[in-house]
Amino acid sequence: MTWSFTDSAAAFRAAAAEHLAADPARNTAVLTLMDAAGRLGWWEEADGRVTGALVVSPPGVSAFGAMTEEAARALRFPGGRAPTEVRGETAAVEAYAEATGRSWTPTVRMRLFRLGELTPPDPAPAGRARLAAGADVPLVAAWTREFAVAIGDEPAEDYTGFVAERISEGRLWLWEGPDGRPVAMAAVSRTIEGQARVHLVYTPPAERGRGYAAGATEAVSRAALDAGTAQVLLFTDLANPTSNALYRRLGYRPVTDHLGARFSG
Length: 265
Known about the structure:
With 265 residues, the protein is α+β, with helices and mostly antiparallel strands.
């Protein structure tokens, strides 16, 4: 039983494809990040089966996919280059953190949801949904920076390319208020192994409390379903009861809880 690592997404896919495809919901972070990751790893049992996978992003954050606690406890990053932060299913993250003996603090507790039957918001918010267009890039880039700050991430210098890619691929929706102004947004990842994840659900503070985020989320979720996505997923911060209740009303159901851990030693 051993961990193997590679910088090649193709080599990783060849080794871990069956594991990733067996449970794409629990492996959503790995599936959506693997092509941009700096390093990828997989855990192989004595009989050759892969039962764990992870990615390490350039900023030094590792996202765990589905893995056993045994695999998490055995995890050692090559060259002593352990990430400063890991995120994944709570039991696996806690097992890894305990095994390292390093000091750590929780950064976020999240819940992964999967869409069941999509239920439109009731009452429906005023306004309408529309796909974002090229002219919306500056506004969406500014909102994305605000979103990063709001969830406690270190914001990037410029989100222009990040949002332009999503807009050009038809993966970002805006909600327009009654006067035609954009008042909320939501995006969805590319569909990989039949799963896609809703993200960037954001409403500026001055526009909150009117159901606009619900409208944008329902629109982007429906677009993913209409495109043939089998599993539409999203993460929520467990410290935010408003968003957790909202997604349940839209038809999302819990899959598993996740934990972020930051290491100081």
